[in-house]
Amino acid sequence: MSTRQTIHYSVIVPAYKENGNIRPLITRIFTALKQYDSPVPAEQVEVIIVDDNSRDGSVENVQALQHEGYNVRIIVRTTERGLSSAVVRGFQEAVGDNMLCMDADLQHPPEYVPTMLAALSPSATFVLGTRYGKGVEMDKDWPLYRRVISAGARLLALPLTTASDPMSGFFGVRKEAFLKARGLNSQGFKIALDLLIKAKIAPDAIAEVPFSFGVRAEGESKLTGKVMIKYLEQLGELYWYKFSSLLVVLVVFIFVILVLLARSFLGSLEPASQHK
Ligand SMILES: Nc1nc2c(ncn2[C@@H]2O[C@H](COP(=O)(O)OP(=O)(O)O[C@H]3O[C@H](CO)[C@@H](O)[C@H](O)[C@@H]3O)[C@@H](O)[C@H]2O)c(=O)[nH]1
Ligand SMILES: [Mg+2]
Predict the structure, then answer these.
(1) Which domains, and CATH codes, for the chain?
(2) Distance 222 CA to ligand 2 centre (A)
(3) Residue 91 near ligand 1, beta carbon < 6 Å
(4) Helix or strand (DSSP H, E) at 236
(5) CA 270, CA 189: separation in Å to the nearest integer?
(6) Averaged pLDDT, 222-238
């Protein structure tokens, strides 16, 4: 049995009404970790499900998995809701220094968990599962409207980060980098983007792991129009966060130029007034 001291890796799974997906998710994660070539030992990994009071049997399901020896626990929130804040809560509760976030619905392949966790290191403080890497593609069954939304959202984030897929919900971060982030936006869906900017992750500290984004195994997506509006609000906040100091410098620069121009203009008028 693992003790807190031996846990170096924490997998955080935000979940809302995902009972049907929990068992396959947990068993597939640990099966992958128990493979002989897994770069990460299964005994060093805990899984934390952050559930927003789904009351769909998820708690009982997790208890059954615990009895079978899986290192998984479930946090049930009753006063808060939302994907990003659930992820932040999971990161705060995590014992491991290497933390991974993944969806419950099996769209993020559990077989990638060992590679994603192993990609984190003191120099690679952020790992991003990317759907735009070499050799991968969105699942061919992904509806066109989702591809269009995803491409548009990605385009709007281009000025903010060099990461190829900052919209991804499959990502990891080192605890020390997470703790540096101030004022995380816990309203939206895009916690990875928020972290990349607010934890000031340098481009060369981002490891990217290409993966193919599957279709949801069970249940329904929670990506609604409201969530998309929240994303636009989040983008506005991040643009301000990142570029407001640049704006101040620009305004000061323009002001100095105007003062210099005014002085030289007034200077050019001076000899004429002296001849009067
Ligand atoms: N605790 C909690 N979990 C939530 C909530 N809303 C969603 N989740 C969980 O968050 C995960 C993703 O939710 P989905 O509803 O499956 O989202 P999606 O539309 O498939 O979006 C995914 O792909 C996007 C990229 O296109 C990602 O940006 C997004 O983060 C997510 O991974 C699932 O495990 C879901 O149960 C919530 O309010 N509370
Ligand atoms: Mg999904």
Answers:
(1) 3-241 (3.90.550.10)
(2) 7
(3) no
(4) helix 225-274
(5) 62
(6) 82
Render 73-96 in DSSP notation, one character per residue.
EEEE-SS---HHHHHHHHHHH--S
Nearest 10 degrees: Cα torsion 28, 33, 38, 39: 130
The complex scores an ipTM of 0.97
* 182 Cα: distance to centroid of ligand 1 (angstroms): 23
Ligand 1 and 42: CB distance under 6 A: no
* 19 C-beta closer than 6 A to ligand 1: no
Instruction: Please indicate whether residue 189, judged by its CB atom, sits closer than 6 Å to ligand 1.
Output: yes
How much is the pLDDT for 248? 80
How distant, in Å, are the alpha carbons of 144, 222, 233, 273 from that of 226?
20, 10, 11, 65
Per-residue pLDDT tens over the stretch 46-55: 999 999 999 9
Beta bridge partners of 129: 209
